[in-house]
Amino acid sequence: MKSKLLLLLSLFCLLTAFRSDKSPITIFMIGDSTMANKNITGGNPERGWGMMLPGYFDKNVIVDNHAVNGRSSKSFIDEGRWDKVLSKIKKGDYVFIQFGHNDSKKDSLRHTTPGTTFDDNLRKFVNETRDKGGIPVIFNSIVRRNFVCPNDDSISKDTRYDAGSIAQPEEGNILFDTHGDYLLSPYNVAQEMNVPFINMNRITHDLVENLGPVESKKLFMWVAPNEVSAFPKGREDNTHLNIYGGRVIARLAVDEISKIIPELAPYVQYYDYVVAQDGSGDFFTIQDAIDAVPDFRKNIRTTILVRKGEYKEKVVIPESKINISLIGEDGATLTYDDYANKQNVFGENKGTSGSSSCYIYAPDFYAENITFKNSSGPVGQAVACFVSGDRAFFKNCRFLGYQDTLYTYGANSRQYYEDCYIEGTVDFIFGWSTVLFNRCHINSIGNGYVTAPSTDAGKEYGYVFYDCKLTANDGVDKVYLSRPWRPNAQAVFINTEMGGHIVPEGWHNWNKKDAEKTVVYAEYGSTGEGANTSKRAKFSHQLKNLKRYQITDILKGNDNWNPTVDGNVLLNKSR
Question: Which is it for strands 235-241 and 309-312: parallel, antiparallel or unpaired?
């Protein structure tokens, strides 16, 4: 008995040692308003650069931002905010420390002195972080946009006004420092204590000075009157960043972090645009990000990160928005609730095509880790995703609906689905396109038909399912593999595991006797309870070999597109 127990313990330790999943790293951020998360009520465009940082790290890094407007190193400690952060730090976590803007204020609640009290507070953050097994990183303050020669008091002043409320000093072309020795203390303490140091002031100074007094305003909170409801009188603020400024400076910070802290570099990710409901991205909606993509941007992908959340919107990707990659964080869902019999503004039924939550017309579209959903429920035809563009690639995506979930619309469209999940009831994968489903999970949530292809005559391929799995919800027991929407429908299932919900005859003729002569319905290597081929419909057949169905040939067309090998790499036009 003892030997068996030791064997089990040894096996457990071995399995634990080889677990591939790791606990995420947390980056705690402590600092002032230039780093902080902001209240986005009323369309407030103000952002701290730390608020935008999550869009630059993958899912293995969590950014926990505790920076707060108006805080100095002293008030952050005195208010108990540091104790709260300290209680959460675990071994291997990082603490990003950036103070200085408010330490220079004259009031006793916030003021510290460089070389003494300011340095002491920074040392406290470093020592106590290390005591918890964390890794401290010191940043100095980002630059103020100050193109006016400062007077003696300017070190302690924020330059922030209601637009037009007072006359602004005349600006020159030289950017002047307003932080003084509050920039030196972070560097000195970092050197003394062997702490990574990120010179945010140098980075942002170079950026702002190179842009000059006019162009640099686009980084800061310069808001015209009546432009944003949060600031009806407008704002002329040279200290705080707007959405664009927050994103730009967060990226510069990440570039430097990758150099100074190479251990974090593997987790860094770069996207052209970020969509986020919490204000940590460039846009709140997916459609706004799509609209911002330049038309016909050739030979390069425009990458869009969709942060976690349910985005209720109808999204259209027009033909001019080519080469888009839409990447979702876990839980990123695009959803809408239109359906065929729902009326439009003219009192007409929207129809099946008009019911979709998402329309993809552009070629070379790529989506990963996105859920496409029609949330209208079992109300007839209700499309989650309508795909017309050529060379569409979906990886690890989910398509949720009931009837007509996935509309593969384009007759000349080639589409590739890898490790995707698709669910529905009746004809929930349908349309004209040539489509390869590779290692996909197809789930029937009601009795019906998995596919309804409408393949055009003369097409070499229609739907091909490779190494897929067909399952069903409890109580679902009468599902057909396909029925022909058009007479030349093609659907082939290769090495597919089929549950007991698949009826023995497998295929349905949709009461179209003539279609039995023209359809191409076939299987090869089916397994599982639903794979009893002896009772299959006579107009289907079993492939003898895969000579015509090599996975690399199905989508190659005339340009040799091969997503199974090349992934989402754009075609080399010279091939």
Answer: unpaired
